[in-house]
Amino acid sequence: MKNVLRFILPLLVVLGVLALVASVLAERLAMRWALRDLEARDHLIVNTLATSLAPLLLAELEPAVILTVMTRATRDERLMAVGLCGPDGALRIGTESLPPGMDCRNAPRPGASKRALVDLDTGPAHVMAFPLDPQHPDQTGLILVHDLSYLTKRIADAHGYVFLFFTVLTGLVSVVTVVVARVSLRRWVSAVRAAMTQVGTSAGEASAAPGEIQPILQEVRTLVRELKGGVRERDDSLVRWDPSVLREVIARELAGDEVIAVSNREPYIHVRGKDGAVDVRFPASGLVSALDPVMRACGGTWVAHGSGDADREVADEHARVRVPPQDPAYTLRRVWLSAEEEQGYYYGFANEGLWPLCHLAHARPQFRSADWEQYQRVNRRFADAVVEESRSEDPIVLVQDYHLALLPRMIQERLPASTVITFWHIPWPNPEAFAICPWREEILEGLLGSTILGFHTRFHCNNFIDTVDRTLESRIDREYSTVSYHQQTTLVQHYPISVECPSRWLQGQPSVPEARLRVRSANAMAKDVRLGVGVDRLDYTKGIVERLRAVERLLDTRPEWVGRFSFVQIAAPSRSDIERYRRFSEEVTAVAAAINERFARPGYAPVYLRVAHHSPPEVFEYYRGADLCFVSSLHDGMNLVAKEFVSARDDEQGVLLLSLFTGASRELPEALVVNPYDTDECARALHRALVMTPEEQRSRMRRMRGYVREYNIYRWAGRMLMDAARIRARNRLLSRCPDLSAQ
Ligand code: F6P
Known about the structure:
Bound molecules: 6-O-phosphono-beta-D-fructofuranose
Oligomer: single chain
Mean pLDDT: 89
Distance between the termini: 15 Å
Number of helices: 24
CATH architecture of the largest domain: 3-Layer(aba) Sandwich
Number of strands: 23
């Protein structure tokens, strides 16, 4: 519309000026024709009157007789008055309509037609004096006065026609111009789009675009080739992703754009210890272990719920604190929640509703309106914090997980130029399962405010797209994996999350033989006991009961391991305000106790249940001191414990038992992949792990380590950020040429 106006307005001005000029010319022309016409008529009238008056004058008849003849002549509608002058030019006889004071002395003669135009009280008139006998111009004369009001009307009509003509012309020219422009633009745009999408193909290079736009097409091709080629080249060539490569990508691809991460869980929790001092705790959270290295590499701000009891003490008046405490690299902005907000949003909607909804672990989701109210309210509070923290209009916002499903659209509405990358850390269920959520549309609409929506696996992406397909009126492009909804297109892509490898927690770790001794001695175990380890939050989706049952079955079926094999379960207390979690904790405790009751003997216990928070270095010591690690989740987006175990084993020993129902099992097939519901299979796998030769362990572990090193957390973040950079570059190109996006 703007472009059309830009063209039409000057056209209107030009045509307006032309109309004005045409009006003036038309007026002059009408006037000239009228005067010429009048003079001819005057001569005719004078000749006629001369013929009638000459005998009367010769006969010297009464003036009244002469006046009658002259008055008869004025019956002509345009001849207003006639006067008869004597040889001295003074008026002798004049018709009644002759304006007073008019005589042949002051009236112009033929040839002076300009002076003949006068304005009388009755309107415009034409006055001219003629000799009655052209042979004797100094004798009797006639003065003729014509009413010109008809001419004024004729000129007004001429103006009207000129105006009408130019109005119709303007309309026609505008319509034709707009149609021609639209058709040309469409051709132009198709040609540019073809050049953008077909770069590198013979079709694209040899496009049959009109010659006049070939130069610009050439430029577009070059630009798109640079964008495409650049991204692929970097992705392929940078085999080893590390913090410096990630920093380089951010600096180069995103020109140092601002990065803001948002999650419920904060990466550093300040708690008051028993001795009264403030301790820093690193939470048991896959999300945190993945994102913290990324934020340390790229700086920026991380917005999260301040949940520690000493959090407020260490934060400034804006709720900000620099972290990691020992080596600050980014800002943690805390959001303070009331007990009521935390209850409804975190425990209620997120963890009693969405968590069981998304995990197939036979727990019934609870949906309460009051929780939903709090969930919306807290999402808005996080959006406020993001807007407050944003220093630019177009930050890159990394929204994390199911606690903040409404946040992407809220951010998109308040910071429309931002790029929102949302990552869903848990599985996405199939459409039938998701359909039971009473607020399914709102959740999907919230997530579709994202520029990019990431899941761990392609399977979860497909579930999400199918769910949108069933729930919302949207446009889905399965080839490009995009969903367009309310003018926003979201790229739905899988980005398998990973860990830092090599891990920073390896620094300062004892050697593997020493770690073996330390964990055994810390648990008062025999030095030579074979050890398995499980590391989880105390969560019913993690398959901890199934795991312990498998240990029990091993001891039942392979009694040679009784006294020679123990299992340490590290269980971080989690979400203990929720009844389901409390019951689960009791169940795990009871199962562990029952197994120990059956198989324990002096100096030996088969199961060591350690329900407590363990720091990452403590956990790493267990990974390194164990013979095997058992991950038996009933359903898990990825499970980073599996990858952490692999990254901890720089000795290339140790066996990973991995549930079929984790995202990680797709990436680590060298693990012993098991169905946690199949207790016998799991017991057999435990035995197989315990008897596996060091060579086989090395060969499996080496391959897994190679994979985790290559597909580490920096690649996870880098791929998302590079996709974001590509989308931002494309949007910038489209904003310079807005009609491209309208096609
Ligand atoms: O990995 C899934 C996840 O829910 C994360 O989102 C979360 O940070 C982690 O598990 C721990 O859960 P929570 O934050 O409730 O302690």
